[in-house]
Amino acid sequence: MIGIIMFGVALLMLMLGFPVAFTFGGVALFFGIFAEGMDLFAFMPYRIMSVMQNTVLMAVPLFIFMGVVLQRTKLAEQLLSSMGRLFGGLPGGLAISTILVGALLAASTGVVGASVVAMGLISLPVMMAHKYDKRLSTGTICAAGTLGQIVPPSIILIILGDVLGLPVGDLFKAAVWPGVVLIGLYIVYILILTRFKPETAPAMPADPDRSRKQEIVSALLAIIPPLALIVVVLGSIFTGIATPTESAALGGVGAVVLALIYRQFSFQMVWDSARDTVKVTAMVFAILIGATAFSMVFSYTGGDYLLEEWMLQLPGEKWGFIVLAMLVILVLGFFIDFVEISFIIVPILAPIAEALGINMLWFAILIAMNLQTSFLTPPFGFSLFYLKGVAPPQIKTTDIYKGVLPFILLQILVLAMIIIFPGWFGMSSTY
Amino acid sequence: QEKFTLRMAETWGPNFPIFGDTTKRFAENVEKMSNGRLQVRIDSANKHKAPLGVFDMVKAGQYDLGHSASYYWKGKVPETLYFTSMPFGMNAMEQYAWFYHGGGMELMQEVYEPHNMLSFPGGNTGVQMGGWFRKEIKSLDDLKGLKMRIPGFAGEVFAEVGVNPTNIAPGELYTALERNTIDAVEWVGPALDLRLGFQQIADYYYTGWHEPATELQFLVNKKVWEKLPQDLQEIMRIAMRTASYDMLVHSQHENAKAWANIKEEYPNVQIKQFPQDIFQAMYDANKKLLKEAAAGSEIAAKIIESQQNYLEQSRAYTDISERAYLNTMAEVE
Amino acid sequence: MRWIIKLDEGLGKLSNLCGWIAIVALILMTANVFYDVITRYVFNDVSIGMQEMEWHLYSVVFLFGIPYALRSDGHVRVDVFYNNWGQKARAWVNLVGALLFVIPFAYLIGTYGYSFAIDAYQMGEGSGDPGGLPHRWIIKAVIPLTAIFTATAGLGMATFALRVLSGEKQYEEGHGGEGLA
Ligand code: NA
Ligand code: NA
């Protein structure tokens, strides 16, 4: 019960505006000492050490560095505005380009912190400069940056594979279509929205001196170098030259090389980019450390046993079980980290699902889709904090909260589609 | 009568098959045998977040008990290496005989004593497989420059014959092997390997030599142990011994089942054995490394000598019993 | 008040030193990972020591980065109310938060992190993998060391808040980490 009260208190404290990371840490501190005594915090060095040795998270500073260099050298702007120009008079071009670049990043990493921040750095300034609606911009970036969870390779699928005892390769394959459909729906949503409200996403102004054909050619030429960089990063993964994490370093070095080619390079530029990267990285990891203190207090005060009890109350009939399980995960995702959910909740649900004859592969994809949503759900969605951390001051937390809502609804829609029509995604709900 | 609740940290994740079942069975047995006077609460890696901190946490008393593998502490206390399994060493039967009757337990206690802990055998995987390879290994030359995920002492032996041991985060292992970032992966055996899906991306499954009898361990904080009344200590002792035996049997059962599954569903998978020249080179490398270790530490020298003497004597009998029987079976089948 | 200003400026310099260390570590880490990929792919050579150096550097980046970001206000806040408040109200939030949350939290991590590192030192802990790095205590000692810097950065947050309360300083709008994008 202490865990539940702690969530409430943390929520209130967050509203005061003290840094999120230390609010988590501080609230955990008071509840932890009160319930278990100081010595509970002897576990903290181990938890910090486990973050230090989690080399997959190295992708966070590396991708951020790439993003900052691309932003400082204006290459990101060039990529996105040229992509936007290809859409001609169609409004929403920048937003669609953002989704596409986000999908490319998602295919190269499964680390949400890395891609949300990188996307924030790359496309938020461009969208702001072109008078995009704040909510549409931030929602698009959070959603695009979070795609890395469902688009393989993905950490959540690897964890679920481990917890459910399913081969990772099968999970990766099964996640491809849901990912593609989700990306498609994001784009369709932007097209529809901008058709009715073009002022939320103005089309890129056409250059009156040039024909459409000239414009397309020059846009394509401008896209090539930054796109080549992304291809190098992705290519190095697909050909096995680098692991997804390492590819992020190739991206960083590649961005510096591009800067050299475009005569944007200076040691000052590299130093300043590194400084920005350190700041944003520290922001992301401070949240991770604060959150791990929080989840430590939650579970050592019996929160995990409480959750376990709740889970065992779920109905023993297939559709009732699926719907309620999904609802519970969605609601828990508002408050609890996806790794905790995978490790605490999923092992309890798995045997029930198995007994009901549910196809575990399908079940795993449902959970993954659902957990991806938890990154976006206010108030504790990590993607929201990450984007806020790099956004200019005129963008308020509430803008981001409201901006992601349509995208959350789209994710729930896809989730419902996979539940009702698994065949569309090449799966079946039973064996 | 006084009741005790002991907290155990295990290196494994929640519901990790076979390994996790072992600790659960142990906890159940302890509770039943003591009529509820002794309870064990198990925290898996997802809770304490320190799979490789179990040693330190039990030592410091943050946990009363631990379940892990002794060779994980090689970087902290080099002599802990020898109580899990050694390349070209004893098989499970021989090793258990060494622990319980051949002086192994006493040597293990000597190593753990200074760290305020007791260590007991904690379950065996049986012979571990030699790993998944994307290409067939036909000669020593094929091993040269091969990038393989193989940690610890076996990695050192492999390095001696020209392999490049490589670190890959567990979450990226599958992708790294699939895309040839690395050429080979050593994991455990069919039952646990199957879950990671290596059979989908690597055709050659090599037989084992490096961990012929991987023994897990129970760790007990010494102060906690001394506080327990004698009957509960005895109950713990028996429950730990039963848990070890159960795990060996369980491993055999699950591995056989998983292997049948791989054979049927993945006809691409071929079982291979390294050629003789490779084994000979690794055997020599292993000897050399052990010699170096023995020269560097008195207690290591004592353990290595004890193990080698015991292996010699025990193997001579295995040869005329188990091996002779298996040879006979091979002839008639 | 004079000594508070002096103290605050000193603490600010300390945090900037942390930032400098983190920036250098970031550049080294990027080069380190790049080097490892190239040597593995082009020269088919792997060094576990160099691979371990990657996470050592990466840890230095974020652990030293945290006190730096604290000084430059790089840590994300929920600004539903905060941005509408005046300078004094914000100063109170930061003063109380620094004293009740940051400093005690860092203190506990520092205390327990100290025995964590000392234990590794006494055992002479190193990597258990072939060719791995020795002296694990060094990287473990970064935990208590940066906890001290985080505590001093927290103290700096408090002294800065006092300066704002006295009217001598002002919080900038959207300063620091915010507005990178
Ligand atoms: Na991904
Ligand atoms: Na959430």
From TrEMBL, chain A:
The chain crosses the membrane at residues 7-31, 51-70, 82-105, 111-129, 141-164, 176-196, 216-241, 247-265, 277-299, 319-336, 343-369, 375-391, 403-425. It is a multi-pass membrane protein. This is TRAP transporter large permease protein. It is found in: Cell inner membrane. The complex comprises the extracytoplasmic solute receptor protein and the two transmembrane proteins. Belongs to the TRAP transporter large permease family. Residues 7-424 form the TRAP C4-dicarboxylate transport system permease DctM subunit domain.
UniProtKB/TrEMBL annotation, chain C:
It comes from the Bacteria. It is a multi-pass membrane protein. It holds the Pfam family DctQ. Residues 29-155 form the Tripartite ATP-independent periplasmic transporters DctQ component domain. Belongs to the TRAP transporter small permease family. GO terms for cellular component: plasma membrane. Keywords: Cell inner membrane, Cell membrane, Membrane, Transmembrane, Transmembrane helix, Transport. It is found in: Cell inner membrane. Its main location: membrane. InterPro entries: DctQ, TRAP_DctQ. This is TRAP transporter small permease protein. PANTHER family: 2,3-DIKETO-L-GULONATE TRAP TRANSPORTER SMALL PERMEASE PROTEIN YIAM (PTHR35011), SLL1102 PROTEIN (PTHR35011:SF4). The lineage of its organism: Bacteria, Pseudomonadati, Pseudomonadota, Gammaproteobacteria, Pseudomonadales. One of its GO terms (molecular function) is transmembrane transporter activity. The complex comprises the extracytoplasmic solute receptor protein and the two transmembrane proteins. The keyword Signal does not apply. Part of the tripartite ATP-independent periplasmic (TRAP) transport system. The chain crosses the membrane at residues 14-35, 55-70, 91-117, 137-162.
